[in-house]
Amino acid sequence: MIRLSHISKTYHRGKDVIKAVDDVSLEIKDGEIYGVIGFSGAGKSTLVRCINLLERPDKGGKVEIDGEDVTLWPDRKLRELRSGIGMIFQHFSLMPSRTALENVLYPLRWRGIPKPRQLERARELLKLVELSDRENNYPRELSGGQKQRVAIARALANEPKVLLCDEATSALDPTTTGEILQLLKKLNSDLGITIVVITHQLNVVKDICSRVAVMEHGKLVEEGDVFRVFSNPRNEVTRRFISAATPLSKAEQMASLPGVLHLQPGEKFVRLTYTGPGVSEPLISAASNRFMITMNILFADVDLVEGAPIGGTVGIISGESARIEEALDYMRQKNVKVEVLANG
Ligand SMILES: Nc1ncnc2c1ncn2[C@@H]1O[C@H](COP(=O)(O)OP(=O)(O)OP(=O)(O)O)[C@@H](O)[C@H]1O
Ligand SMILES: [Mg+2]
User: Fold this and answer.
1) Ligand 1: which atom is nearest the Cα of residue 198?
2) What is the CATH number of the domain that holds 112?
3) Which of 244, 268, 289 represents a domain boundary (last residue)?
4) I need a surface site. Which of 8, 75, 224, 341 has the fewest CB within 10 A?
């Protein structure tokens, strides 16, 4: 659906040259939810703005939408391009002096559709985002989540094939974020719309994306299936992202602070990380029974990514030392990454 080839974007500010995007190539398939993640300033917004040519990429870059090289299109065709690609933003960008219904009607005005049909269509869209009862409210009378629903309805007015979401949930609380993500997921599966999600929130990617690109300093540093990227990150930036979002990364700190862990001789302080599908909590009790060890779990963090568990457990193992080794080997065989962070 979207193919970006060698996209760069350079800004000139006086003498300064800023390479916001640096030679990025990627492909987004029809009907998928694709995530672009990176720390602030990584170039995510600039990259997606190149998709609908809100930014023109530097020479040599090519943007193909549904097989068409739109970088060759003249400026007068850009409205057509942008009506096929909806976009939503962190701060909703609604027109404050128009009601929810009028905001959704606005993009329909250009299309030569009879007025009554426009109205009907706008109401259908508000129904789709479950906001029918708020059609006469002004943006200031709506909550953040409701405003984003209006913005989504408006973005869908022209029946786009692609929806670009630039930090669409960053201004929302976790519950509302979850609701908006579920709505996006529903639109993706019911309407088959291809969705590109830009975010610095790892959970957004975990919850709804099937593939993800990680950006840093304008470059694409890692790309792949979400499960693969989270379970086996290849790039340092990706690892930093993941460890910032999970308490499991605090284990090193615990191990290095004197007096936090009171390990008895023979005990081991371990972190078990699930790195492949098919692992789950019962493994620990299975190992405990089988090798007569005990695992005192200090904390755990397990998430489901595309239906498979990902995450891990941190705790103290005690038992006979040979049996502890056997238990750890057993877990390694079951696809668990075992790290011994301290020995008693
Ligand atoms: N119009 C512009 N003129 C000059 N520099 C710009 C312009 N737009 C973006 N930049 C610079 O390009 C770089 C990438 O910006 P961009 O907004 O794409 O990052 P981002 O990954 O979306 O960040 P955030 O997570 O904070 O939204 C930044 O260094 C930014 O200052
Ligand atoms: Mg941005």
Assistant:
1) 22
2) 3.40.50.300
3) 244
4) 75
Assess contact for 318 and 255: CB atoms under 8 A: no
Tell which of 218, 244, 270 closes a domain. 244
Print burial letters for 124-149: b (CB count within 10 Å at least 16), e (below 16).
ebbebbebeebbebbbeebebbbbbb
For the chain, the average pLDDT equals: 92
Which CATH number covers residue 313? 3.30.70.260
Distance 55 CA to ligand 1 centre (A): 12
Question: Which residues sit opposite 302 in a β-bridge?
Answer: 311
Question: 304 is in which domain, residue-wise?
Answer: 247-343
Same domain, 289 and 228: no
The pTM for the full model equals 0.86
Q: Is 40 in the pocket of ligand 1 (CB under 6 A)?
A: yes
Counted residue by residue, the chain has a size of 344
The ligand 1 atom at the shortest distance from the C-alpha of residue 13 is: 4
> What does the pLDDT look like over 167-208, one tens digit per residue?
999 999 999 999 999 999 999 999 999 999 999 988 899 999
Q: Which amino acid is at 287?
A: A
Residues 120 and 38 in one domain: yes
Which of 44, 46, 47 is the best mutation target for the ligand 1 pocket, counting ligand atoms within 8 Å of the beta carbon and taking the most? 46
219 lines ligand 1 (CB under 6 A): no
How many A from CA of 285 to the centre of ligand 1?
49
Number of domain units in the chain:
2
Mutate to test the pocket of ligand 1, among 7, 9, 11, 204 (most ligand atoms within 8 A of CB): 11
Residues 154 and 102: their CA atoms lie apart, in Å, by: 9
Q: Is 62 helix (H, G, I), strand (E, B) or coil?
A: strand
